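**User:** Once you have settled down, spend some time on the protein underneath, comparing sequence with structure tokens, and judge whether sequence predicts the tokens.
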Amino acid sequence: MRFRQLLCAVAVLAAVLAAGACGGASDESGGAQVAAASADGGRQTLSLVAFSTPEVVYDELIPAFRKTEDGAGVGFKTSYGASGEQSRAVEAGLNADIVHFSVEPDVTRLVKAGLIDESWKSGPSKGIGTNSVVSFIVRKGNPKDIRGWDDLLRPGVKVVTPNPFTSGAAKWNILGAYQHGGLSFVEKLIKEHVTVQPKSGREALQTFTGGEGDVLISYEYEYTLAARKGQDDVELVVPDDTFLIENPIAITKDAGPAAKAFLDYVLSPAGQQFFANWGYRPVSKEVFDRNRDKFATPSKITSIADLGGWEKVDKELFDPQTGSVARIEEEAGVSTGD
């Protein structure tokens, strides 16, 4: 098993490096790609490895950081893709000074590999870079009248959500369904209503806006991206009961002072405002309060802590060998990476 996992990690790394050799990353891409920014003769080049969705934010945030005293002369290499694949690529050797992933287990993998310090959650934000809630994106006018989770199980409703064994977004989506109706609800949803499971949250959005399905289970901020990109034929629905999405961010052990300065900027009010502009819920209370009218207020929001934490949840639901969701996905014919 360890040998197969190693081969998978090497394959992921090779794909990332090949993408980098082919050119820069596009904000429309859900695959792991690499874009290099010139260091302009500066003192350091930082490598940011992130999940697919915040690429558009970093396209604005990085230039702003480079205009600050701490960021002057600092260059960047960036890689964006499905969170699980990105984490495995770093484990396999992809250089990273800062990682911003969808779910905590993708950071934990790098802690176990000795690449990130165990104290990565000790700061004021507890290691979280951005928040959101599990939401639905539907067609304009909401023709299927999707209001809550039970509506997804109505006859004829077709659902798009990513593969939870490559995408962190998909794990959050499934946890949203799980908190609502338990494992039986998740099983019925996956086996009878999910028509396609793309590799990443960004690919899932592209699949949905391309015409597949009646509803996309997604991050709240993916709707903001679609709207800001001129996609005016979709609407956002936030169910009354949903799940809190907490996207972790950390620096690696070998990262220099510039990486810490960049992390501090990302978590600062200035940095968090860039995320708020794209529909992310800021971890900064000051910025969240300033942008409160942008966000829905569901009556019930369950967190990963409410379910016992990621170590418990990952083992019980998503472990390829022991997880209940893994079993359901395998029976549905979906690859779990095992």
